[in-house]
């Protein structure tokens, strides 16, 4: 995998770039839709391509439980299994264990948990996470880390930083000892922890960055802390992280968050917001959010967003989509998801365009104002 | 609307033809997917076109309750509302009242019922059914009829035949007095009732056929009677119905049913089977049915049907679709629906082809054998 910075903004840390993978090249800054269990909920790979999705994220925890990594391995990897031939990034499984599963024990060796599906017991270690991700065949592999919540005691955060250091070494070692089983390369992203403590963040960068070949992730944010604290840390990280590698801010965020983080030098994002909110009827537009279930759209025969070029907006009205939500017709969930993902991808494309034309600062201030962000 | 018989089979009553409507021409024999509430469940109009859907059916009862006919009228009719520019046939609402709603009273004047959604009271008459279908703007309007179940007393069936006669006159009168409100023509299909009694069927044809301009429907079958009794009646109807109009057998059926009915001179079909069964995991193939949830498909990395040209079979494996059903991912419902509808449309295309090449009888015997039909 290779990363090349194309254009750096004069006034902010924003930059455009390209990540070359064996499944194609990705233009950054980039948003990655979440394909939790081998599918981006409600949409097909063909539709993802039509709305210019360049890379998707798969969840190791979910795929490990269902359909199981052996099955995906037999299918020739996750790309083949789900019929998606562009890049895939997989997480390490750790975050879902902490947030979804019943966590039994966490120790230096690994994490013991019970499946949220059937209560079955499992033990995940850095080595096991790497083994699973080898079998999934993702282009980008995330390190197995410990991600404490925002209200964790400082000693827990310190412990997590230490454990994340210990574990990145074991991840790297496993990958060196066990080369990939498919015809393409897989790149390990170390993850920086340290909560909202600058001191711990510095320590974490120092210990994990040496393991980064091409890409490093900022973890442990968007876990309940104040937005201002999150952006402070991202700004400080910008100084600490290598400039020549893509930076991936995990689990963020709203359209405004993406713009603020790009200003601070972030290149990659993933978030459930566009897909999950779509399924709840919340739609993103160039003039802010709207909820399609609202009574006022009952006889509104205009598209969700007149300025939007997605297939949903080109073919269907708010009144029709509202009707589909009313009758619980799954086509509605899909039309909403396509719109929201298109919106996110289009936002990233505008961000890239304005960085390259040199007016990113001015454009983004105006845009934030238009969508009603502070 | 115009109907033209193209080729009549030498050995059976099968024939190919073309129905010209203001929304395009339909090749018969034809299968019409059911778009109950302004959407063929799980699929988009674009996908319907990609699998060669030529006409869809809308349910008057459902659309009248939600989103309401005024709303669809404001949208410029059902075609505009749901973004489907090919022909639409709407039923009269009667069948759903009998099968879904709480029926309070049926009399010569009309039918009083309570909505299955909220218990609200409504009164549907032949005139009201015509008014609604005028507002929906369907290309083909079904007469308001009474459709008794198979176990109904002969006197109830007689009564239904009489009422259906009374009502077709009122339907016709209403349509004459109230011309269409859109820029396209709408054609009324009278419905023949009479259960499995040849005498009553004859009587019904004599009384309703004079009201047919271009198209007549065979109602009151597939309501619980023996299959053999159904096909006997269809065979007798073939003698009684005008040859120069399309015959529409309502609510039928399995792939084998379609072949048997085409042999007996039927031109048009609708049925929930391909769409509803798809959502239950039951898939139709050129070698019979299969249920995708079956454990044996867990590691089956072949398509549903190697001989199928649908997008589902071209891109996805049984193992993947089974996984989607396992995790309740709605993409699975869609992939299954697309496959089943493609199968039905392709079956009709093969039927048309073999009628035209002159080997329909022989081909259909072999085909029925292949799919395991008796």
Structural account:
Chain A is of the alpha/beta class. Chain A folds into two domains: 2-271, TIM Barrel (Alpha-Beta Barrel); 272-374, no CATH class. Chain A is built from 15 helices and 17 strands. In chain A, strands 4-15-14-13-12 form a five-stranded parallel sheet. In chain A, strand 7 (102-106) and strand 8 (111-114) form a beta hairpin. In chain A, helix 10 runs parallel beside helix 14. The radius of gyration of chain A is 20 Å and the shape is globular.
Topology:
The structure is a homodimer of 374-residue chains.
Chain A: E1 2-8, E2 15-21, E3 24-28, E4 30-32, H1 45-50, E5 56-58, H2 60-65, H3 69-74, H4 78-82, E6 88-90, H5 94-99, E7 102-106, E8 111-114, E9 121-124, H6 126-136, E10 140-142, H7 154-177, E11 187-189, E12 191-192, H8 198-208, E13 216-218, H9 227-240, E14 247-249, H10 255-263, E15 268-270, H11 273-279, E16 282-285, E17 288-291, H12 311-315, H13 318-326, H14 330-357, H15 360-370
Parallel strand pairs in A: 4-15, 5-6, 6-10, 10-11, 12-13, 13-14, 14-15
Antiparallel strand pairs in A: 1-2, 2-3, 7-8, 8-9, 16-17
